[in-house]
Prior knowledge:
Elements: E1 8-9, H1 10-18, H2 22-30, E2 34-36, E3 39-40, E4 46-47, E5 53-55, E6 58-59, E7 68-73, E8 102-104, E9 112-118, H3 121-128, E10 136-142, H4 148-157, E11 159-161, E12 164-166, E13 169-174, E14 177-182, H5 189-196, E15 201-209, E16 212-213, E17 222-224
Parallel strand pairs: 9-15
Antiparallel strand pairs: 1-4, 2-3, 2-5, 5-6, 7-9, 7-17, 8-9, 10-14, 10-15, 11-12, 13-14, 15-16
Amino acid sequence: MTDQPKPIRLNKFLAERLGVSRREADELIVAGKIFIDDKTAVLGARLDKYSKVCYNKKIIPFDTDFLYIAFNKPIGYVCSRRAQGGTPTLYELLPKEYQKLKTVGRLDKDSSGLILLTNDGDFAYQMTHPKFHKEKVYEVGLDRPLEPLHQQMISDYGIMLDDGPSKFTVLRQDSNKYKVVLSEGRNRQIRRTFAALGYRVVSLHRTQFGKYQLSGLVPGKCVIIKP
């Protein structure tokens, strides 16, 4: 007697195969863009390896090899697939076989350091959603030393920004250099927080994301990692 194929929830399947979050997968289902065996899929649907799942008139293969890489992004590159004006994209630095992967979060053009890329949307979701509290560590240079009161305000109370309070740990390293540890991932959060107190971030380099670290990885290079 052979084992029956184990069913999998449709939104989990889509998240893993399309590189989206489960919420985004549910939105595709509700919008009527997903078909199972030529029928419009519904929320909560399950499938197995014999099911034919289609999106944009293309069959999504059931078996997919997931790939995870760590990349040391240099300054001057954006994390989007398309160049912005005259600013190149980090995908120009990646080997061809990795250019279909999606970034897990982002670093702005003027920031450098650790970026993760994958084709596993579920992994990306678990690394970036605030409820999982994945710590990120940065080396931050300011245009002048941080006042002790301001350091305490950021670390103990948080600074109010347009999109809510921003709170993270700030540890002085040397002169105007600081170690910043936070578990959020809001757009340019570190830069905006220091700017609200009158400081300018002159350098921002991410060294750690969750359990993953740069560990001497050369700028512009990448390495395969395990989830």
